[in-house]
Amino acid sequence: MSPTATNPVRALDPSLAQCLAAHGLGPLRRAALHQLQVNLGRLCNQACHHCHVDAGPKRTEIMTWETMERILGWAKTSGIAEVDLTGGAPELNPHFRRFVDRFLALGMRVTTRCNLTVLLEPDQEELAHWYAEREIRLVCSLPCYTEKNVDAQRGDGVFTKSIEVLKRLNDVGYGRKDNLVLDLAYNPGGAFLPPAQEKLEADYRERLHEDFGIHFSHLLTMANLPINRFAHFLERTGQTRSYVQLLAQQFNPATVPGLMCRHLVSVDWLGQVYDCDFNQMLDLPLAGKPHRYLWDIDVASLLNGIIAIDSHCLGCTAGTGSSCGGALAA
């Protein structure tokens, strides 16, 4: 078992439970399950400063093909139509392409969380064409449209490499054709909330097209949650309490119906289940119960079940909200 993060905001008030109760919304429960999110491991070719997964080139946690087969067996009978593959860099798992093809054979829609620069790694040069042939939806990290801000978060030279890969994806049709969805993901560079998604998308679209001729489908704004590297940043700069208080002060009840924990199940590299990817990184198992494996879960039993929450969850309900699909409210 890999080491898991600690939650430095756990003891801080107020909590999400208090915010929900104040609006008559607690406890937080599951709605119908729409999506399976699978973390293929924590190996990554980057080590971004904000990464809640604490991923990097030296991580050894990698999902095996045996675990993938058990997940596929569960997916075949689950009735779920969508799978979201993440990491680390999911493409670095040696079984990644085989896994994707098996999901496609089941008739499922596949999304991959891509850091862009992985397409420049050895043996990944044809990945853009491979993705396009299968019409995989891509969600690609690009926390700003300027080199200075991107490199500050993701490492020197990452912006230039990201632009090169975005052009490569555009060349095969991504961001230009309706069936080749290229969404970009933004997260703030500090202890503040994302700006309005619609306005920021317009800025991205103008700057990336004018400066580099790049096209994309949508921009997804995501808040930084106080987990792993971003939590360490908050601690080092003495902003932990003020950031959690900001999240609580900006609690928006309109975000609650769309919270991703209500509609997906998150699976770690061992096959264990969680209410969301953030809970996975804090080792808060599904519904707050002892660890279970996906193949031991009956889909019907999840409906209306209690969701495990903690103070970090305030990051998903603040302002316009935050999820793997971007903002949750106008």
For the secondary structure, the number of strands is: 8
Strand order within the widest beta sheet = 6-5-4-3-2-1-7-8
**In the CATH scheme, what's the topology name?**
TIM Barrel
The total number of structural domains is 1
Shape: globular
Q: Which residues sit in consecutive blocks of at least 5 with pLDDT less than 50?
A: none
Quaternary structure state of the chains depicted? single chain
Q: Could you describe the 3D structure shown?
A:
The protein contains 12 helices and 8 strands. It has helices at about 15-20, 65-80, 95-105, 125-135, 145-155, 160-170, 195-210, 230-235, 240-250, 275-280, 300, 315, and strands at about 35-40, 80-85, 110-115, 135-140, 180-185, 220, 265, 275. An 8-stranded mixed β-sheet has the order 6-5-4-3-2-1-7-8. A hairpin with a 5-residue loop joins strand 7 and strand 8 (about 275). The radius of gyration is 19 Å and the shape is globular. The N and C termini lie far apart (about 40 Å).
Summarize the structure.
By secondary structure, the chain is of the alpha/beta class. It has helices spanning 16-22, 65-78, 96-105, 127-134, 147-154, 158-171, 197-212, 228-236, 240-249, 277-281, 299-302, 314-317, and strands spanning 35-39, 82-86, 109-114, 137-141, 182-186, 218-221, 264-267, 273-274.
Offer a few descriptive terms.
330 residues; alpha/beta; TIM Barrel; 8-stranded mixed β-sheet; 33% helix; globular
